Structure formats: structure tokens, C-alpha cells
């Protein structure tokens, strides 16, 4: 896929937002964008879903239609394409992202979304922390946590209404493929997160803190074009207001955000 170089070279700050299906990853990203107001022009969101492999065989398509194809296994994704796009964006180049159609289980022919370099890139997906090479691209890793029953309820509503799938197939796929793969491949990656957001997009406190951090990054003089459009890479932790040694730390109501201190 072709990539073009932008005028201003930027080192974007890349934030990974992982979590189980229907945990609220895209809703969290949407709320972050909403709250950024005018600054959202400098932020882009990329979904791992856009990188589902294309051209399943006829047999695979039939399996997918019966809810028997495993879209929750790491092999379901075109990993190299996703890495290539992120590397290009990191190098300040624009690139093209396929448009995925969940009804046909394939990419929309000849349709792409062009993404330009940005100062902050939000990347969301179920397995973005699974592969070490992809995981290491993130300056900040967030895991969206939601009760499994709530996720199942949302998934059923979404797949039957928005993706036109029969309820029996949705439940069959969830119980036989989605849930076991979540436990095998997604949940174990929670340990890599710097921040865990309980209750997803309902968690105003956690979302507010992340927005505040992005605002600080974007307002930092080192991220302005006059200073080479560079965002300081060492800022890979959540810095809270008043966290200096002489001032009291901001109090975060317990249960709203888990900040992981384990080095990784
Ligand atoms: N906090 C919430 N309350 C109610 N519905 C929600 C909430 N978060 C997400 N949803 C709904 O659940 C579905 C999945 O949410 P989404 O953000 O797309 O999750 P993910 O990106 O993790 O799959 C969507 O239909 C969305 O509108
Ligand atoms: N053709 C497809 C492709 C993917 N899925 C399911 O999508 C889920 C990941 O997307 P989320 O927005 O829910 O994170 C994943 O659990 C796949 O099962 C699908 O059903 N059909």
C-alpha cells in the first residue's frame, strides 16, 4: 500500500486501547475525541477491525455466516499490514486503511480510508497487545474492562441489529469462539496495560484524566511545528496534576481507574 510523506515530520504519541469485544473500546475513543474539542484535529483513531484478513475462501465465508469462523484468533488479522500502516504514520507518512464490512466478512473492494500523520494516534482493538512488536509501538496502553455479561448483552444487540446476524449464530459464535479466545488471547494482555478503565465509556473520571494527559501533550511547546513537531517520547506515563513533590497528588476516587505501576 502506498504512503506519502507529510511536510512536517512528527513523532506521534501512540495510545493503545484494548479490551474484550463490546467492552466499550470505540466508545471510549469517541468520548476522548469529543472531549478534546478543537484539539481533536491533531488526533486520529484507528481500529484493529479494519485489518481483518480479506478474501476468505468460499468455505470460510460459509463458516463465518454460520458463526463458526474464528475472528477472535490472532491469525484472523493482517498483522503485517497493520504494523506497516502504524510504522508509516510514526514516520510522518500518510497511508491507506481498508474498509471492513462485518456483514460480508470482507473488505469493501477498492475502498480505503486515507489517514494522515497526527500528533496522537488512538489504536483500538481486541488483540493489539498480543503481539510484542505491535505492543511495543504504544507509548501508553489502556485496557477497557467491562463485565462479561454486559459485553455479551451488547454484542447480541449489536450483531443482530447492526450486523444483521441471526441470534442463534451470534450466541453459537460467542460461546464457542469469542469467549474462549478472549480468555486465551485477550485477557492475558491486560497485564501489559498502564491504565485499566473499569466500566468503559461510563467512566467519566478515567476518560477525563486521559483527555487531560492528551491536552498536556498537545500543548507542550515541543509538539509545535516551530519545534520540529515532536512530542516528547519519554512521556509514556499518566502524569497527574499536582503530582510534584511539594504539592499534594490529585485524589482519584477509588474504583474509577487502575494505574499499573509494573515496569514493562
Ligand atoms: N457504557 C455504555 N452503555 C451503554 N451502551 C454501551 C456502552 N458502551 C458501549 N455501548 C454499546 O455497546 C456496543 C459496543 O460498544 P463499543 O464501544 O463499540 O465496544 P468495542 O469497541 O469494545 O467493541 C455499541 O453498540 C455501544 O453503543
Ligand atoms: N467478520 C467478522 C469480524 C469480526 N467479528 C467480531 O468482531 C469482534 C471484534 O470487534 P469489537 O469491535 O467487538 O472489538 C470480534 O470479537 C469478532 O468476533 C465478527 O463477528 N465478524
UniProtKB/TrEMBL annotation:
Keywords for the protein's UniProt record, in alphabetical order: ATP-binding, Kinase, Nucleotide-binding, Transferase
The EC number(s) this enzyme carries: 2.7.1.48
Pathway: Pyrimidine metabolism; CTP biosynthesis via salvage pathway; CTP from cytidine: step 1/3; Pyrimidine metabolism; UMP biosynthesis via salvage pathway; UMP from uridine: step 1/1
Comp. bias regions, Polar residues: 239-249
Annotated Basic and acidic residues bias: 227-237
Protein name: Uridine kinase
Catalytic activity: uridine + ATP = UMP + ADP + H(+); cytidine + ATP = CMP + ADP + H(+)
Domain named Phosphoribulokinase/uridine kinase: residues: 14-206
